[in-house]
Structure formats: structure tokens, C-alpha cells
Design brief:
2 copies of one chain form a homodimer. In chain A, the strands form 3 sheets. The first copy, chain A, has a 7-stranded mixed β-sheet, with helices on both faces. The two termini of chain A are 38 Å apart. Chain A has 2 domains: 135 residues, Aspartate Aminotransferase, domain 1; 240 residues, Type I PLP-dependent aspartate aminotransferase-like (Major domain) (Aspartate Aminotransferase, domain 2). Chain A is 42% helix and 12% strand. Chain A is of the alpha/beta class. Chain A has 14 helices and 12 strands. The interface between A and B is large, with 83 and 83 residues.
Chain lengths: 400, 400
């Protein structure tokens, strides 16, 4: 085993960039790209047309929908392809909220303190501009929601519950099935942002007891710019993108055939390799977590110690400012993150970390290392040499 | 010159599929695909991150935004990348309408009788579900809007005017600059759906006097699944997709870097070859139109005879039903359309054709032939042999 020797003045001497930001985005898998390629310049017809070119596209679209539906354990027509996880979350929340409000069912939404901005900012806009109200159920110190809190938050005018499947910043996996049972008893649709779970966890919508589920392709080796929303049959949705009758009238716009083909291929691949790959990732991740805690005893694991995504290690480190740490890791050839990529660069502590009871000053020292298919044990060893050295140097330079 | 000999029983004997549905979608140009390729598996970082991988993506995004802005004659920050033309239209209309309504400016929208469904269905939803009102200004027999009608339609509570640049079904180009002058005098934002114009007409937003302009990549040899909305600085927009602060807070969601790079490349290429390619297309198209009218004297050109898209020929043909005609042309290896791809298969006559005064029965016989970069004069000759034979056969078989 050849380990790169880190220097503090530049990239790891091996020259290899170590990418530990798979929760932000993944490279497109070569086999996924291969599946997509014929749909750029060879089968390029608009699937809505009536001719040979259109049919080739329409057939690929149908086939992809069936493949995805099989993995989700749903009907093909319950799958709505979108342009990203954010769009899926927006369509689920705004779509259900507006439809329910206009049916006179109410304007109250329940969510958790541990959601992605695609959920929180969408509910916030509904509250600020469209007369909705929300109840944000708390999370415990591990970022976990208590289903009993969801139950208590339900009001007669509650029209939607939206709880993340696995958190992007701290990796904690929520007890969705239990929450779903409560939601179903009361006849309230349950949406889950499963963007971070896609590729790693069980996505069967009946196992999860969910009525709406968002996924994003680029979290599981499909490209950025494609996602999907599962919408259980019978759930009323006011479309948020209107025009042609695409996606069963729920999402207008010419379908992104190459990416949809890629998403289906990538989801199938992830599903097929899930159990072996998860095992490998957990082994690497646990070694990373244990070693970081051994060498940096002040560093604190964030998120649940066991109920967490298999590839996800997250910490808060006293005495360092996350963005400065990331820049130094980058200089050493290590790509890491502080939390949500959508929130990077912000000087504010993360709402999610604050909700978990982490003090604001400490929350500014968040570090997220998310492993992926290319991650080797050599990569982890390099990080374990570089990270403590960088942290100690920064702590000395800039005492907070 | 080798011309394929058509037979009524199958594909043209040359075996070549003649694709005349470029208004529905275009193949991705090889140079566009080449520009996109590095951003799938090599530079795959999320542009929001703080590391080398993220920077490569962010730089490509910035560069693409600058290239596009130069063509539109606007500032880079006035460009919002979206997932398609439909999303752009939706964001423009819903975004401006909600922002204006909430600022107490009113709830009245002006549009024309010659718009794409992405516009008409979005305004319809605002009227049906959110208390807005619309005035639909008429079009003349060529599908042309009279700016004086727009002026007359303006009310004190008018908050948006949305007029298509060039119609998808009949190719007519609207007098946008004159309409824009009227809008500007009254301080009302003018949006244009320029999806069909992209790649063929001048897109300079100051020449056009527009405040919002929608484009879709796959109409000019970029892929399906990417578009943009120009939003003039100072135009208030309530975002329709909320989450991270992407696109200046106007459109959340991880950016589709490969496609955005492709869109910029494709727009630049289309701009560079526009004058020579348009000349070539006009020559082919005019020959097609004149010959169809000579061989099928009952066929009527739809849309303006001269103020029309250079690649666009559209007709109504008495005695044939469009979908049947398309299926027969397809059997002969010719890919054509009846009108909007988003409306194909519908048994209803097109609203646009009805608004132009075409009788419903006649409107059901719509045929759209849209040429493109691969179209040769041999293709046109083949169509000119096949089409009259097919029409005569169908007219004899199914007198309407």
C-alpha cells in the first residue's frame, strides 16, 4: 500500500485529488453515460411527436419509468420526472398545499427542524405569501424526529407532512415508516425528501409508508439536472409547471430523455450494488469516524451514531471556521464540505445543527466527509494524516 | 443528385429518414456534445462547493452565463438558467404575477390568441386558482398581433404582458419591439416566449424591447432539459422553485452544468451561422411552400407569408385528418408534425388556428414541416413527391 505523504504547502504528494463530497454531487458513472449517449444525436425526437424519431424517445421514456417504478414499488404512472430534487420537493409541497387549500381542507403543514432548504424555503414562501401556517417538530441531539411529536402537531387543518428521509448535513435517518403510519391514520399525505437516501437506502414507498418521495439523479451517479417525484395515486396536486400535458398533467415541459434514461440506469445500478457497496462504505466511514475522534478528541460527531447514511461522516470541530478549513483541505487535494452544498459559503451557522442543540460558535466548525464508489482506504488514510495537521495548524493560527 | 423514389407501402426507397420536425426538437450538435462531455465524469463538482471540483463547475457556469448574456445583449446576472422553455415561461409569468399582486399592483395579464400552452395554461391557472384576470388580444388571419390592440387592453391593474416572439404552429413573427414600446410607456413588464425564435432571429433584448425572454436549448441543437429566462434588472419575481440561493435566488436547484455549457455553445453556434443558414433555409422552405401549393391547390399556407420563421412551413389541407396524415408520412420515412409537439395526438383543433379564423374542420388538417441543418434539397424533393400522393390517397379513402 502506497500512501501519499501530505505536505502543508500543496496537494498531497501523490497528486490524486481525494473527493469526499459525494453528498453534494457524484460523477456520472461510465455505464450511465453510455446508456444516455444514443439519446443526444441519434434518437433525438420529441417524445410527444407522431413519427419514428419521436417513438424512439417515447419508448425510452416509458421503459425508464417502468424501471424506476419497479425499484420504488409503485406504478409507472405514479412517477413524475423532474429537473432535480429541489423541483421534486417544490412540486410535492406547493402542489399538495395549493390543491388541498383550494379544496378547503386547510393550510397547515408539518415539517421537521432537520430539513433541506428546498423544503424549508418552500414552506416559508407558502407561509409568507400564501397564508399557510407551519409547525416545525423538533429533533433530538442526533437530529432525529420523534414520531410522537409529529402526531401531537397534527391539527384538523393539516394538509401535508414533509419529513426528510436522511439528512444531508448530518446523515441521520428518520423513522419514516412510523411517521407514515401516523399520517395514514389521519389521512394526511406524507412527503419525504429522499434525495440523500437515493442509492443507499430502501426506496420502496410502501415499506416507507410515504405518499410523495423526491429523488435527485446526481446523488447516485446520474447527471445533475434530473430528478423524480413519486406521487401516490389519488394524491391531489396542483401542477407547478403548466403547459403541455407531459407527465400525466403534473409537470409540463419536453422530457429530458437522455437524463431520464441515465437516472433509471443509475438507480438500477445503485440498487443492485447497494448491499455490498454499503458494507464497504460503512467499514471505511467507521474507521474514518473512529480515527478522527481519536486524533482530534475535541471533534464531535454530528448526527446519529448508527442510524446514519452509510457513506456519511460529519463533525463539528471547535476552534476552526469551516470555510477556512475547507480551503486548506482543498489546497491539500481533499474535496470536502461543511454541510449542504446549497448553503456553502454562508457565514451563518446551520439551522439543522442549531436545532440539534449545537452551540452557534461550534456549529461554524462543521465538516462533512461523504464517501463514494471511488473512495479507497488509501484515501481515508491520507485524510487521517492531513486533517489533524490542518486542524491543529488552524486552531493555533486563528483561535476562535 | 440521387432522389429516393417513394413507395406508398413503406419508407422512401433511399432508406433515409427525412426529419422535418425541427420545431419540436433538434439533434444535439456534435460540437455541443463535445463541449458538454467533460462535465459529466471529469468536472462533476457541485458548483456551490468550496474545492477544486466545485470550482471547475462554477467557472464553466460563469463562462456560459457570460457567453449567453453577450448574445442577448444583457448582463450575465440577468440570465437565469432553467430546465426548459416551459419552466422559463412559467417562472416569468407566475413569478412576475405573484410579485406584482403581492405588491398591490394588480392582477391583470395581457396575452395574445397565438401563444404556446406553457403561457396560456399558466395564465389560465392563475385566473382559475389565484384570482387573476386576463385579456387575450386577437390575431389577424396570419396570426399577427396588432400592437394597438395590446395598447387598448391595458388597464390600471395590468401587471404583465406576454406575447410570443414567433409562433410554434404557424411561424408568424410578432411586432415585439412596437409592443415593447407601448409596455415601457406604461411601465408594464413585457415577457416573450422566444423558444421558437432561438437560433433563428435576433435575440437582443434591447432591440426587442422586452423585459423577460424565454429560450429552450433543444430548439437550437442543445439537449432537451435546459432553457433560460432573461429577467431585466429591477423586474420583481417571486421565485417558483425555492431552496438554495442558486441563480441569484430566482431558481433553486443544483445547476445542470453539462447542459448549460451545451446551451451556451449551441446558442453561440446558431448565432454565428444564423445569416447564412437562414438564407439557405428560406430558399428551401419557399420552394417547399410554392410547390405544395402548386401540387395541392386546396392546401392553404397558415401563418404570415413573409413575417415567418425561416425554417417553418405550415399548412391546412382540406379532407385529411392530421394524425392520419402524419402516420402515413412516417411510414414513408418522413417525420412531420401537425402543430405544437406538446399538443400532438389531440383530436381538438388548435386554438391558434381557430383564432386565425380557420374553420374547425379545416384546422384538423394541419401539417407543419420545419427544416433544419440536416435538411437537403433532395429531402424537399422527396417530400414533394410523397406528400401529394399521400394526401390524394387519404382524401379518396376518408372524405371528411
Amino acid at each position: 500500500m502506497e500512501t501519499s505523504i501530505p505536505t502543508l504547502s500543496g496537494r498531497t504528494s501523490g497528486g490524486r485529488v481525494i473527493y469526499l463530497d459525494h453528498s453534494a454531487s457524484t460523477p456520472v458513472d461510465a455505464r450511465v453515460l453510455e446508456a444516455m449517449m444514443p439519446f443526444f444525436a441519434e434518437h433525438y425526437g420529441n417524445p410527444s411527436g407522431i413519427h419514428a424519431q419521436a417513438r424512439a424517445s417515447a419508448q425510452a421514456l416509458d421503459q425508464s419509468r417502468r424501471e424506476v417504478a419497479e425499484i420504488l414499488g409503485c406504478k409507472p404512472k405514479e412517477v413524475v420526472f423532474t429537473s432535480c430534487g429541489t423541483e421534486s420537493d417544490n412540486l410535492a409541497i406547493r402542489g399538495v398545499a395549493f390543491a388541498a387549500a383550494q379544496a378547503g381542507k386547510g393550510q397547515h403543514i408539518i415539517t421537521s427542524a432537520c430539513e433541506h432548504h428546498a423544503v424549508t424555503h418552500t414552506i416559508a414562501q407558502l407561509c409568507e405569501h400564501f397564508g399557510f401556517q407551519q409547525t416545525v417538530v423538533p429533533v433530538d441531539r442526533w437530529g432525529m424526529v420523534d414520531p410522537a411529536d409529529v402526531k401531537r402537531a397534527i391539527r384538523p387543518d393539516t394538509v401535508l407532512i414533509s419529513i426528510i428521509y436522511a439528512n444531508n448535513e448530518v446523515g441521520t435517518i428518520q423513522p419514516l415508516a412510523a411517521i407514515g403510519e401516523i399520517a395514514r391514520e389521519r389521512g394526511i399525505p406524507l412527503h419525504t425528501d429522499a434525495v440523500q437516501a437515493g442509492g443507499y437506502l430502501d426506496l420502496n414507498v410502501d415499506h416507507l409508508n410515504v405518499d410523495l418521495l423526491s429523488l435527485s439523479g446526481h446523488k447516485f451517479y446520474a447527471p445533475k439536472g434530473v430528478g423524480l417525484l413519486f406521487v401516490r395515486e389519488g394524491i391531489a396536486l396542483l401542477p407547478q409547471q403548466t403547459g403541455g400535458g407531459h407527465e400525466g398533467g403534473r409537470r409540463a415541459g419536453t422530457e429530458n430523455v437522455p437524463y431520464i434514461v441515465g437516472l433509471a440506469k443509475a438507480l438500477k445500478m445503485a440498487q443492485d450494488m447497494r448491499s455490498t457497496e454499503n458494507e464497504r462504505l460503512v467499514r471505511l466511514r467507521d474507521h474514518l469516524i473512529q480515527s478522527v475522534r481519536a486524533t482530534l478528541p475535541d471533534a464531535q460527531l454530528t448526527g446519529h451514531p448508527t442510524q446514519r447514511l452509510p457513506h456519511h461522516a460529519s463533525f463539528v470541530i471547535p476552534g476552526v471556521e469551516a470555510n477556512v478549513l475547507l480551503m486548506h483541505l482543498d489546497l491539500m487535494g481533499i474535496c470536502a464540505a461543511s454541510g449542504s452544498a446549497c448553503n456553502t459559503g454562508a457565514a451563518e451557522p446551520s439551522d439543522v445543527l442549531l436545532a440539534m442543540g449545537i452551540p452557534p460558535q461550534l456549529a461554524l466548525g462543521a465538516l462533512r466527509l461523504t464517501l463514494g464508489r471511488s473512495t479507497t482506504s488509501e484515501d481515508i488514510e491520507t485524510v487521517l494524516e492531513v486533517l489533524p495537521a490542518v486542524v491543529r495548524r488552524l486552531s493555533a493560527l486563528q483561535p476562535m
